[in-house]
Specification:
The protein is of the alpha/beta class and 382 residues long. Helix content is 21%, strand content 36%. The chain folds into 3 domains: 6-125, Response regulator (Rossmann fold, 3-Layer(aba) Sandwich); 135-213, Thrombin, subunit H; 226-376, 2-Layer Sandwich (Transcription Regulator spoIIAA). The chain contains 9 helices and 23 strands. The strands form 6 sheets. It has a 6-stranded antiparallel barrel. A 5-stranded parallel sheet has the order 2-1-3-6-7, with helices on both faces. Helix 3 (65-74) packs parallel to helix 4 (93-102). The longest helix is centred in the last third of the chain and has 13 residues, at 273-285. The radius of gyration is 22 Å and the shape is globular.
Length: 382
């Protein structure tokens, strides 16, 4: 039987954080949490046992999370401990200097989307995240002393681990050897251990944490987990996976692009400052003769593009998702819009949307002048 690793967290006494710990991937792992109501409580718990990560609300009764994070780094010397801070509302640019100086690893703005905290912690805990990535995989395991090969597909991949859909029941034991085949036909060999296993009638689902990943192999995984390039008629389509963080890698992509390129960003749900930096640098590498645009832009991407024009480089947005809210039935919904649907003169005005549940008109759940800034740019030519 595969052993299930135990993950220990110290978290603030916050309903937002606690509710996230009950969602998605957290329910499939052995998670032990210690709840701290004050900064002093957090420090006391840290001196007793080092957790795998700390998740804090921004404002604590006796301190703010960023001052506490600095204490954790400087006074306690825990420089490698992952610390995530959850804020209610956005962070001003003036406050960003304090955030950077604190040494915290991630800052999330509430309200959080479903499973967002899991996606952030997955890289630090060595867990797989949700993704639209699909690549073939061959797992080699030992079952009762016999060498067994299991075939399936990886539909979630990070440098730390993968989630695998098997074509037959899993009957092996940890550790196991995994062979992942990239879209270019390259085979990546990795060693891993089973985090959890879910059996199905005709196969099973397996979450695997990779062991001892060498730097060169890690770089190959970063590329495979970041983007996929396909050809659709006369247009190259680049599909970005779920995260745009410091681990995103666009190595070798710019040189493959030619003529017309469409970036599909519908799966992009997690973006941080380092990811923005990598993305902007990549766009600058695209040859000038390449005409590119963006479709199905996710809300996180639009939020960044509204503040940072370089997020779209020399390209143009064709379609995007926008947040709406129904006050009649308390329902949130994202609607995909075309840039042409937005009124730009004399002011930016989003189109009217009706609630799919009650039929009442929904309200736009952001400031139009801020969120829709990218709509005033010229339309794409294809």
């Amino acid at each position: 039987m595969a052993t299930t690793p135990v993950f220990n967290l110290i978290v603030s006494n916050s309903t937002i954080i606690v509710s996230q710990l009950r969602q998605g991937g957290f329910r499939r792992i052995d998670l032990h949490t210690q709840v701290a109501s004050t900064a002093a409580n957090v420090v006391t718990l840290l001196t007793k046992q080092l957790p795998h990560a700390v998740v804090l609300e921004a404002r604590l009764p006796d301190s703010d999370a960023f001052d506490l994070c600095r204490r954790i780094r400087e006074e306690l010397g825990m420089t490698e401990l992952p610390v995530v801070v959850v804020c209610e509302g956005s962070i001003s640019r003036a406050a960003m200097a304090k955030v950077v100086a604190s040494g915290c690893d991630e800052v999330l703005s509430a309200p959080l989307s479903r499973g967002q905290l899991y996606d952030v912690l997955a890289d630090y805990l060595g867990l797989p995240r949700r993704s639209q990535l699909r690549v073939n995989v061959l797992a080699q395991v030992t079952a009762r002393g016999t060498f067994v090969q299991l075939r399936g597909s990886v539909y979630d991949l990070t440098v730390s681990g993968a989630r695998i859909r098997l074509e037959q029941p899993f009957v092996g034991e940890s550790p196991l050897t995994i062979c992942i085949e990239s879209s270019a036909g390259q085979e990546l060999l990795l060693n891993g251990t089973v985090v959890w296993h879910r059996p199905y009638a005709s196969g099973g689902e397996l979450a695997v944490r990779f062991l001892d990943v060498k730097p060169e192999l890690a770089q190959q995984l970063e590329v495979l987990a970041t983007w996929r390039l396909d050809q659709q008629d006369d247009v190259q389509v680049v599909t970005l996976q779920r995260s745009l963080t410091e681990r995103a890698s666009f190595a070798g992509l710019a040189e493959q692009l030619k003529d017309k390129v469409l970036f599909d960003l519908r799966h992009l749900t997690l973006i941080n400052s380092m990811g923005v930096s990598h993305w902007v640098a990549f766009l600058r590498e695209i040859p000038e003769e390449v005409e590119y645009s963006f479709a199905h832009c996710s809300v996180p991407f639009c939020t960044q593009a509204s503040f940072i024009p370089d997020m779209v480089g020399a390209g143009r947005v064709r379609s995007f998702f926008a947040p709406y809210f129904c006050t009649a039935c308390d329902r949130e919904a994202e609607r995909e819009l075309k840039v042409g649907d937005v009124t730009v003169d004399p002011a930016l005005v989003p189109p009217t949307q009706l609630c799919p549940s009650c039929g009442e008109e929904m309200v736009f759940e952001d400031i139009p002048e801020r969120y829709l800034r990218f709509c005033v740019r010229p339309k794409p030519q294809f």
